[in-house]
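Hi R.,

Here's the chain you asked about this morning:
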Amino acid sequence: MVPKSIGNLTSLNGLLLGQNYLGGPIGAWIGKFKNLGTLSLSENYFSGPIPSSIGSFTQLTELYLQCNKFEGLIPPSLGNLRLLVLDLSYNNLQGTIPNEIFPPMSPVTNCVLSNNNLEGLIPPEVGNLRQLLELHLSSNKLTGEVPDSLGHCQELQEIKIDQNLLTGNIPMSLGNMKSLTMINLSHNNLLGVIPTPLADLQFLTGLDLSYNNLKGEIPINGVFANATAVSLNNNWGLCGGVKDLHMPACSAVSWRIKWKVYLTILLIMVFGFMSCAMSIYVILLVKKKSRSPYSKLLSFGKKFPRVSYKDLAQATGNFLESNLIGRGSYGSVYRGKLTQAKMQVAIKVFDLDMRFEYSSFVSECEALRIVRHRNLLPILTACSTIDNRGNDFKALIYEFMPNGNLDTWLHQKAGHVVPKLSGLTNKHSC
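And here is the predicted structure, written out as tokens:
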């Protein structure tokens, strides 16, 4: 054990006790070294928890506690230090990696936490270590995915996160880390394909992705061209690559990929054709509906022109008395000319103040649907709307022969109530 009297050396700026047979818990004496820049207790038999008081050593830049029997949690207080080197490997540390040890703008260059019993996710805050050169997290029980934020560590040279329980895909961001020389992600449960940008890393001389669940074609450039620098064993979905890798050919896999591509193209063509056909149908339907509203009627109730109150007011000079050609029990008849159709019409406007005017309007619509007269063509249309003053307005519009005998027709139609027939509602409107 370390004698307690060592705590009297409070001015020490370096304490190196590595590679001895020292053991037992670290006592309170450790908290007296406020000026330490380097603390090494590596390769001993120290046990118990790592003292959180170490987090108060504001001058400490290097902490070596590897190869001991420390247990318990990693003290979050270590995040208070401006460490360059943190090595806690080969101990019995448990729990999760505290994100506090990866503070923003951290100067850490070497973070070694391998060969412990750490579990949980790799904190995404690892991306704060912009000066990081080595990250060793091997032989733990870490789960989740390799954080994409790792791509922020552009100075990183070595990544060793093998022998964990990681899942998900290999981040594409690793292909942007131009300084990488070693990547070891073996013995995990990684999925997906090998990111092709890894082949562009010119300093990458070692790549171990063995014992995962990777699939797809192996790149052939860069580090993948050297079979001795790459280990891809026990990834049953991989194929291709250089001959010395002794991987199966990708013909069957390529055919499945091509088949999916062809199927996708076929579906795009089919849906494209259907979309074009539907568009053409809609265009034709719109054109059909937008034909001149004064087209010849085939049968009343199936198709009839739409005439507005404004059209009728314009045709009759705003219902001038000079255009009045008859008045009956239920309304008045005006002579008019529909401007757009250039058509002479007779317009019967119903008097809405009269009793039974709605019955008369409906009855006359129904009767004139089938009536024929030597001076009168079939009814052109009916109008049921609101006039300019906001009142109900109902009218029937007839097309008549320009040289016909209107007097007889007016006498019969302007004052005569046609018997009401069923089957017509007021849904026929302008």
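One quick note: DSSP finds four helices and 23 strands in the chain.

Cheers,
M.
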